[in-house]
């Protein structure tokens, strides 16, 4: 089997490629930086690096020919946590480029596409129970422009499927952790800040957490078992920030802070961090969007993915231990 993977040097993309190679796939990996790709994936001779960018899909579209499946993990994400108006880029890359890529894949005969959406498109049920694939969006879906772009991309894919024969399966992962978070993501930065003792207090709130390797397994299984047009929540269990920091202490030996900080104070600090960022032109140290997600009380029921895609979630401590070990081995600390 030949796969084409976008976002290949990201947390999910790099772990997905390793999962695919372990299953016997040959992989064409779309990357912006060949050097970064060699650092993360250079030990895999089954992987061919294709330098390209979603801003210019026609420049690499011919490489899709001969591929059996397209895995689209790339997205404009962490940049949207900074200052400024990111909506034009979010729309261009997360919505318009997704449809352009699917059209290019269909044109050259790709057999199936696996698209990475976000659990942020989904809220709890009206009765307060954890959300599933049919639950309405949460309020934070509309205030967080990244989540909003993913929700609009899902609608665009539904319209695409009405006029297309290319099957497209939608995977909705929760906030991801795991090794090979080289960028790092906002969650990866949180782990690094904890290890460097830059977080002075235990945070309020929490969120579902999932190992990127478990999401990769779900995506690979979706090639055979995923139904076109269906969403599959791979959300992971809800974890409080206090429990997350306690687990980090257990696996790293770095003591978690004992002082607690309430949710309202986190919002105040995020406000002032954003204000200072505007004055200095620097990305806020405490992004408002991240705080809003922690305090949104999101929780998910991943039973459908467990049942149809055979997904199982590894313990949080295992994920964190592997993540800390990777950061130490990669000299991030």
Identify the overall geometry. globular
**Beta-strand residue fraction:** 5-15%
The CA-CA distance between the termini, in Å, is: 38 Å
- Could you tell me the number of beta strands? 11
Strand order of the largest sheet: 3-2-1-4-5-6-10
- Biggest β-sheet description: 7 strands, parallel
What's the average pLDDT?
Answer: 95
| Sheet/helix structural class | alpha/beta
The run of helices and strands is EHEHEEHEHHEEHEEHEEHHHHH
Helix tally equals 12
Low-pLDDT residue intervals, each spanning 5 or more residues:
none
Relative helix content: 40-55%
Q: What is the alpha-carbon Rg in Å?
A: 19 Å
Short description:
With about 325 residues, the protein is α/β, with parallel strands linked by helices. Helix content is about 45%, strand content about 15%.
